[in-house]
Please model this.
Amino acid sequence: MHEGSITTQIVESISREATRRKAKKVTEVKLTIGELTFLNPEQVKFWYEVLTKDTIMAGSKLIVEEGKGKVRCLKCSYEGSFKYIEDTVLYTPMPTLQCPKCNSSVEIIGGKDCVIRSIKMII
Amino acid sequence: MSKPLGDVVKADEGEVFDIELEENILRANQKIADENRDLLRKHGVTAIDIMGSIGAGKTSLIEKLVELLKNRYRIAAFKGDLTTTIDAEMIRRHGVEVVAINTGKECHLDANLIKKAVQRLDLNSLDLLLIENVGNLICPAEFPLGSEKRIVVVSVTEGPYMIVKHPFIFMDAQVVAINKVDLATAMGVELNKLKNDVAEVNPKTEVVFTNCRTGEGVQEVVEALGL
Model:
């Protein structure tokens, strides 16, 4: 939903790091986008291309990985992926905060972040 | 002086470096939200973030909450909207301080806007801060503000699939008010189905049926929020 502004922040961070290290060119960036963020990877890639044009990041490869949503059950200590509800009305399975093992409440412990993992640059 | 070590390993001109960064981009808002929460707690102020779609009844709920609670707590409200102060005036008529936050084009409030609005308040003469987010069931979930609790208001006039279509915002809410219950029959919406949808997405959330025009159910909202 906010890919334009978030990608601007991503590009600024990369640019800061590249300047600090006196890089001549950035060739590759690895990014993890959490399943629970409202960021669409295709949109992020589109904005990345637009925002890096005419910079030392131009033409660099943006590799986006999905950070899977992860939950922890407060009752049975289950840790892992969500319980999804599949229903013909829903088309896309709906994630829930129910424990897949014991149906108690779970807390979210992963999948809400957007992280720049690494940057490849020519120095 | 000791003898030089000889050749030091250096990067060659044009060498490719792979730099681990691990920088979390969404942390910036979370950090300010945490600071807001700390500041409000220090002054004994409880903040509630009220989210929900456009026209769900967020402002009406705040008006009724103010009426019910203004003799027990010293209340202020933030009213987030893209433009205008129409709703802010509606709440102000109930005798509480209101700061209107116009986001311009943004579809949600963020922690930085709350930080700026909080500076307008005298926190020492306040117990409760009601924050009405911009009408939207998507983006506010991504931007915590620093509130103690979050409530989502949905109304039956939005149709029977509002919850299953927007599960993420309900994951972040401690209380859900299903509003305009008097129109459920006319809309052909089954109230218990909506309640069950919330329970499926987030079993910990408390669901309250309300009619914020008449005030029906608002006392239960107060209790569900622990106020």
User: Anything to note?
Assistant: The interface with chain B takes residues 1-2, 6, 9-10, 13, 17, 21, 23-24, 27, 36-38, 85, 87, 89-90, 94-98, 103-105, 108, 112-123 of chain A (CB under 8 Å). The longest strand of chain A covers residues 25-34. The longest helix of chain A spans residues 3-20.
